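Worked problem 6 (solution included).
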Amino acid sequence: MKTKNIITTFAIASVVLMVGCSKDNTTTPSTSSGGAYSNPSVIPVQTVVQATIDLRTTADYIVLAGSLISNVPTSALTGNIGLSPAAGSNITGFGAGEITGIVYTVDASGPAGSVPNAVGLTAAKGDLTTAYNDAAGRTSTDIVLLAGNIGGLTLTPGLYKSSGSLQISSGDLTLDAKGDANAVFIIQIASTLNTTSGRKVILAGGALAANIFWQVGTSATLGSTSVFKGTIMADQSISLNTGAVVEGRLLARIAAVTIKGSTVVQP
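Solution. The predicted structure is:
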């Protein structure tokens, strides 16, 4: 397939990004003695507009998991949570007032006040798989490839892809919608997503958490007191450490969502 760009590779600290440049505008960056590119890094504005990921009935949940939802008090969750196919008894650790929303289970073994809705949960888990596959399968001639630590970067709307793991571990990550409140960000991650303690995802230029989608091939872990924006769709598990704050959704296809004294609000 004829591509719009040739690949230019550069690094910021431990981050390596591979970004397209037109064949008529070849860039050859200089390298430092260590072999990493030392030129300033500018991530291009993508011209291909990505449509949103349709979450369907999964959008009714801020937390949806397959095997377990566990909590270490005191957390604050604003929105519905659901667990399927595991029994409702696998929703543990929540005290009174920690969830402002409905707890849905597949049976009557859930916490006090939970609502059995096996049919609805099966549909939501199916919709999650559809949305996950949609995000994972997106392509673009403008795609930007990421690797390693993406802290300190500013990303504009579009499609981003990592063939391994991503971390936000040295500086905060900014997502800039450039004044377009409908702008969509999709980040495809083949392996894990991790943030270290205190790191933030910052929204700029009218960016909305509802339009940010993180497709994670294995599991995601958010460090203590980190601030995160967007919907995480993980194939396996999602873990929040003490004091983490999320504006978004935590959607784990197969395994657990674990929460420790964290705050989660619907985008």
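Discussion: The chain has one domain: 56-265.
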